[in-house]
Amino acid sequence: MTGPDFPGGQAQTLERTETQVHQPRLWRVLLMNDDYTPMEFVVMVLRSYFRKTEQEAELIMLAVHHKGQGVAGVYTRDIAETKVAQVTAHARQEGHPLRVVAEPEGES
């Protein structure tokens, strides 16, 4: 074939390549226990920033209180880091030392 669609007037063969798409690694956002942040504030954070129901928020808050930490949610890295920054800023603004961390799923 010749013509403007084929440089040099020659037909070209295109090869199809397979692209593998991998799911991004997920990160857990953890709330850590401390002796100063009120339980009510933790519940409010879980409801406001992590869209938990009242019952879910209370169960997670109790895990934080009794086990030392609780999983607020699992997200891609960017979202997890954003949530950590937002909650930490809000806690500091309210005068609470609440510690929020993100770690890759599967680590403890």
TrEMBL record:
Matches recorded under InterPro entries: ClpS, ClpS_core, Ribosomal_bL12_C/ClpS-like
Region (Disordered): 1-20
Domain (Adaptor protein ClpS core): residue spans on this chain: 23-100
One Gene Ontology molecular-function label: peptidase activity
GO biological process, one term: proteolysis
Family annotation (Pfam families): ClpS
Gene3D superfamilies: 3.30.1390.10
Keywords: Hydrolase, Protease
Similarity comment: family membership: Belongs to the ClpS family.
Assembly mode: Binds to the N-terminal domain of the chaperone ClpA.
HAMAP family: ClpS
Its job: Involved in the modulation of the specificity of the ClpAP-mediated ATP-dependent protein degradation.
PANTHER family: ATP-DEPENDENT CLP PROTEASE ADAPTER PROTEIN CLPS, ATP-DEPENDENT CLP PROTEASE ADAPTER PROTEIN CLPS1, CHLOROPLASTIC
Protein name as it appears in the record: ATP-dependent Clp protease adapter protein ClpS
Gene: clpS
